[in-house]
Amino acid sequence: MSIQQFIQYAKAQLQPLYDSREAENIIYRLLEHELQLSKLHILLDKQQKLSEQSGKQLNQYLQALKKYEPLQYVLGVAYFGDLQLQLTPDVLIPRPETEELVAWVSDFCQKMLVEQPLHLLDIGTGSGCIALSLKKNTPKNRVSALDISEKALAVAQKNAEIHQLDIQFIQANIEDKNAWSQHPFYDIIVSNPPYITEQEKTLMRQNVLQHEPALALFVE
Length: 220
What we know:
two-stranded antiparallel sheet; four-stranded parallel β-sheet; 9 helices; 14% strand; alpha/beta; 8 strands
């Protein structure tokens, strides 16, 4: 099977679930990930034959996508700013709007005229996207990342190791007021907490409802 033939086959498989443009974007992302080629290279060489192994792997990706699994979980990676992050269904998929939050906080930190490093806390760190980006953008500052989920912290720690960023990880429930005194003083607290009400579930897509962690999405 050539790349062109796979694209045609994949479109037929995905278009009942996604509109034409979204399906096409997903297909090229699958090809880029599997073949380790740029989209431009793929576009210029659509007649290239896929290896048997790549063909099987791409088909496995398609079958997972047809079950509404989000692309980031299917591939096991997500991009946040200039960071490539490891991802599992134990953590929320980083949102583009959160990149705006990180940019705003990073700019705020850089404008503060202080000699001593600031201490930043990311509450509900998930994949670590906020904490890692803040540490990379403002390396002199101390960054801590807190989450109630042990599995989420494992993902965040792995990402910190990959990018060689020094983050202090804390497993705790921030809603436990009795434990607040155990935390040090923080100059800046950042969070992208759960904010979707249970009543709003009917408005959400199945790939979110069925696969992303409810703990990171919903509030009473």
